[in-house]
Amino acid sequence: MRLISWNVASLRARLPRVLELLEELSPDVLCLQETKCSAAQFPRLEIEAAGYRIDDYSAGPWNGVAILSRADVADAAPTEPLAGLPGEHDPTEARWLEATVGGLRIATVYVINGKALDHPDYRSKLAFLDAMAERARTLAAGGPLVIMGDMNVCPTDRDCYAPEQFAGTTHTSESERAALRAVLEAGDLADAFVAVNGEEFPADDPKGPGGPRYTWWDYRAGNFHKNLGLRIDLALLDRETAARASRVWVSREFRKGAKPSDHAPLVVDLED
């Protein structure tokens, strides 16, 4: 079973690349973030023509999440979808969507950016992560669980190209990292990339077995080509499901080419 998470930074702008990914990588489930379209604007016909079912939580030009699943797998039709994260400050921001697919409870999430440590969004971000921890605790008690998406947190300094440059900013603060660890602990979850590739997987080896360590590179200053990035897109799996992971990798090719997102897809391959 192949699961992919991708912050597409506008689904309509990136639709050709999404259809290319569906064709080339053939995921069983594709979790999208930052779809940035209303429900009426969601390109359903094109995605359904590519052979995928759609569950989406769309809220206009900002945010938005979706779960796409292969239509040709009869026992993998999504069930019990839930839009919005219980306990979050504003569910209408469309940052969380979950459904059961192929025996897994799968959530796609776009965590609040936070902007700056003294910004109100930073407090909202910590509260959102707290709500994620409570939801992870609840869902993990019910069976296999996968939470995939843009967490907007670098778990460790190894996941940031220049930690000293990010001191006093979001994405690397101890409060954010502690809140993310609380999500893992609440659901007894594993960071799938680390579980498979190890803590010391090198950031400067984009052609290694896991692809690059990073999943996001700023569009500016040629940061992608210099591999100056962040690992902020994660797949959090329950321990039993994590033990099934044979490969977890970042598809660097989809950060190249025409109109790329600033994120690359994170791929999780599970043994059946």
TrEMBL record:
Source organism's superkingdom? Bacteria
EC primary class:
hydrolase
Report the EC code(s) recorded for this entry. 3.1.11.2
Q: Which Gene3D superfamilies match?
A: Endonuclease/exonuclease/phosphatase
Active site positions, chain numbering: Y110, D150 (proton donor/acceptor), H263 (proton acceptor)
Supply the InterPro entries for this chain: AP_endonuc_1 (IPR004808), AP_endonuclease_F1_BS (IPR020847), Endo/exonu/phosph_ase_sf (IPR036691), Endo/exonuclease/phosphatase (IPR005135), ExoIII-like (IPR037493)
Query: What is the name attached to this protein's record?
Result: Exodeoxyribonuclease III
